[in-house]
Amino acid sequence: MSNIRLDKLTRQQINEITRDSIVVLPIGATEQHGPHLPLSVDNLIITEVAKRACLQLKNELQIYSAPVINYGNSHHHLPYPALSLSSETVLQVLKDLLRSLAITGFQKIMILNSHGGNDEALRIATRDISREEQICIGAASYWSLSWDSLANAEALYSGRVPGHAGGFETSLMLALAPEEVQLDNLPDKWKHEIPPSQKQTSKRLFIQKPGQSVGKEGISDDASQASKDKGEQFLEIIVKDVCHSIKLFNNQCIKE
């Protein structure tokens, strides 16, 4: 079966492929990404990563991508703006969708995430539904699967990975949807706005303060050096590592 989009299949086709197949469930967010990128950045990136990974793996595995979950927990970007779900709602949406896939007959589900605000819900949903439905579930943010490779490729050149609307995400968007990138809207001079007190905080300590966490421009780092070439390089690395992780996931899920 050539189609890798789960929602493009008929009920009969679903019945024929469920048990041995992997379903990739992408989740993103709809939130501000600075003055130069659309609110849909996270959704565009994770949809394309899931699609490319499934296409690369389809000759080795039975694998399909579910439609992206377009909303996540983005309260820290309100009201700049974001269309945000509460943490409890994100968790319940994930649980309901995982449960639905399990009832349909899928035994292996891989959640791919592109928004840091969803992390906690992913872990809880994965643990709870795996135990409840006795199925194999994996979950990861795409950048966490590619961190070492991106670092070795000097993706951490001058900014943050994944950051927020900075050089990394802007490069990805220039590769995926250049018509939606408005570089002319970037600030003339980049100024990193993290307060000195926050810079001194241990990375092991999680702190959340009221309001937006990336400064008044809504950007984590300088995006002026972003390029399509960098974005294509990043995508190639990300998809390769995501494919590798999906194969590891599949091997772990095979019942002895």
TrEMBL record:
<keyword id="KW-0378">Hydrolase</keyword>
<dbReference type="Pfam" id="PF02633">
    <property type="entry name" value="Creatininase"/>
</dbReference>
<protein>
    <submittedName>
        <fullName>Creatinine amidohydrolase</fullName>
    </submittedName>
</protein>
<comment type="similarity">
    <text>Belongs to the creatininase superfamily.</text>
</comment>
<dbReference type="InterPro" id="IPR003785">
    <property type="entry name" value="Creatininase/forma_Hydrolase"/>
</dbReference>
<dbReference type="GO" id="GO:0009231">
    <property type="term" value="P:riboflavin biosynthetic process"/>
</dbReference>
<keyword id="KW-0479">Metal-binding</keyword>
<dbReference type="GO" id="GO:0016811">
    <property type="term" value="F:hydrolase activity, acting on carbon-nitrogen (but not peptide) bonds, in linear amides"/>
</dbReference>
<dbReference type="GO" id="GO:0046872">
    <property type="term" value="F:metal ion binding"/>
</dbReference>
<dbReference type="InterPro" id="IPR024087">
    <property type="entry name" value="Creatininase-like_sf"/>
</dbReference>
<keyword id="KW-0862">Zinc</keyword>
